UniProtKB/TrEMBL annotation:
GO biological process terms on file: negative regulation of chaperone-mediated autophagy; proteolysis; regulation of protein stability
Transmembrane segments: none
Molecular function as annotated in GO: serine-type carboxypeptidase activity
Amino-acid biosynthesis in keyword set: no
Name of the gene encoding the protein in the UniProt record: ctsa
Protein name: Carboxypeptidase
Record's signal peptide: 1-31
Alphabetical UniProt keywords: Carboxypeptidase, Hydrolase, Protease, Signal
Subunit structure, interactors included: Heterodimer of a 32 kDa chain and a 20 kDa chain; disulfide-linked.
Family from the record: Belongs to the peptidase S10 family.
This enzyme's EC code(s): 3.4.16.-
PROSITE patterns listed in its UniProt record: CARBOXYPEPT_SER_HIS, CARBOXYPEPT_SER_SER
Organism: Salarias fasciatus (Jewelled blenny)
Cited InterPro entries: AB_hydrolase_fold, Peptidase_S10, Ser_caboxypep_his_AS, Ser_caboxypep_ser_AS
Annotated function: Protective protein appears to be essential for both the activity of beta-galactosidase and neuraminidase, it associates with these enzymes and exerts a protective function necessary for their stability and activity. This protein is also a carboxypeptidase and can deamidate tachykinins.
Length: 408
């Protein structure tokens, strides 16, 4: 089983950061990590030479996404198997490149990486030959229930729903608290269908509410050059009746595009024969596409939340954990992850406060951070789903402080 090559950037050989995948079937080339970004950003802004702080190992996982492939062409997999193969890939990498094995090791990822990273960490922490120091998850899927429940509040309070729909939702979905996740009341599911239409089908960029939609407003489902194109990765409202119907309709040859994402430049670049050669991509590897519909549609989602994994990591009292969220993302919105971190009920070390970073216009508020024992929740103000792409300078500052164990 092949796994895609990474693009490690080597500066200070003290750290090894593993960046594992995003939304299911969606390889992580889109949101470049700080080392790739800083060479541009910091040069432009400060006229300084690129200062990189870690070596990066990118995992294109599970097999079937990006350049990774499987010899038996079987791309059905699930959360447990992915955690295992990511662990084995990491072990294999360190066997082949033992010079990295004593480095401090951090595991990071975003989006569906919210599942991949804690489940991988659960295995890594049990292997004493791996020098695990910490885990960082960006705009992660931590709990489907909290993600859906918070999104409806997020949408209303960001001006997307209006009072009529909000009143209907309150009446049909809420009593003491609101259940927008698996509410059996048909009036509630009807109103939630309207919410989903607004968030996913009206043309908003769900990955960044305030960014335009590259390529213009598109349908959630369309036919282009005789290919069915789906623009829905199936991570939200999985309990809603329409989502289950959706999944049945989609079991055939389709192209899966994340909505409002222009994948043309990355596809052209990565499929260039010289680039493939430079990355040592095997001839047997698939063409690089932004999303694998096959992997996505056959994927077995086994964890509805990763509470158990986080509690296990925290109970070791020796790992640094960071949950960070761009605060204008609607795929994995900040509030759902904030609720999730709060629900772990760790002791508060430093109350929620703004965190600052230096930018061209001087010192700026990067967002807010609340520090608990061994785990911090941090927002990145004005950033969407892909924090390093949207806010590279703030993201670089955040990652530096995280890796070095400095206060945010
Ligand atoms: C996950 O996938 C593995 C490998 O295909 C399989 O053995 C296992 O039964 C699956 N687990 C579940 C719960 O489906
Ligand atoms: C759904 O709404 C209709 C019309 O407002 C109402 O008559 C009905 O009782 C509601 N159903 C439930 C289960 O609340
Ligand atoms: C985790 O918390 C414990 C208890 O407060 C502390 O002793 C330890 O140094 C912390 N570990 C890290 C990595 O921050």
């Amino acid at each position: 089983r092949g796994s895609g090559a990474g693009a490690p950037v080597l500066i200070n050989p003290r750290f090894l950061l593993v960046w594992a995948a995003p939304l299911v079937g969606f390889p992580k080339m889109l949101s470049a990590m700080p080392c790739l970004l800083c060479s541009v950003q910091i040069n432009e802004i400060n006229g300084r030479v690129c200062v990189c702080i870690a070596n990066m190992l990118y995992l294109e996982s599970p097999a079937g996404v990006g350049f990774s492939y499987s010899d038996d062409h079987n791309y059905a997999t699930n959360d447990t198997e992915v955690a295992l193969v990511n662990f084995l890939a990491l072990k294999e990498f360190l066997r082949l490149f033992p010079e990295f094995s004593s480095n401090q090791l951090f595991l990071t990822g975003e989006s569906y990486g919210g599942i991949y990273i804690p489940t991988l960490a659960e295995r890594v922490m049990e292997d004493s030959t791996l020098n695990l120091q910490g885990v960082a998850v960006g705009n992660g899927m931590s709990s489907y229930e909290m993600n859906d429940n918070s999104l409806v509040f997020f949408a209303y309070y960001h001006g997307l729903l209006g009072d009529r729909l909000w009143t209907q939702l309150q009446n049909a979905c809420c009593s003491d608290s609101c259940n927008f996740y698996n509410n059996p009341n048909p009036n509630c599911t009807d109103s939630l269908a309207d919410v989903q239409d607004i968030i996913y089908s009206s043309g908003l960029n769900m990955y960044n509410l305030y960014a335009p939609c590259p390529g213009g407003v598109a349908q959630r489902l369309s036919v282009e050059r005789q290919t069915l194109v789906i623009r829905d990765l199936g991570n939200s409202f999985i309990q809603h009746p329409s989502s289950r119907l959706w999944k049945q309709v989609c079991r055939r040859s389709v192209r899966l595009d994340p909505p409002c994402t222009n994948s043309t430049p990355s596809s052209l670049f990565l499929n260039d024969p010289y680039v493939r050669k430079a990355l040592h991509v095997r001839a047997a590897a698939l063409d690089w596409v932004i999303c694998s519909s096959e992997v996505n549609l056959k994927y077995g989602r086994l964890f509805l939340d990763v509470r158990k994994q986080y509690l296990k990591l925290l109970s070791a009292l020796k790992y640094r954990v960071l949950v960070y969220n761009g605060d204008v993302d609607m795929a994995c919105n900040f509030m759902g992850d904030e609720w999730f971190v709060e629900s772990l009920q760790q002791q508060v070390e430093v109350q929620r406060r703004p965190w600052l970073y230096d930018d061209v216009d001087g010192r700026q508020v990067g967002g807010f951070v609340k520090e608990f024992d061994n785990i911090s929740f941090l927002t990145v103000k004005g950033s969407g789903h892909m924090v390093p792409s949207d806010k590279p300078v703030a993201a670089f500052t955040m990652f530096s402080r995280f890796i070095k164990g400095q206060p945010f």
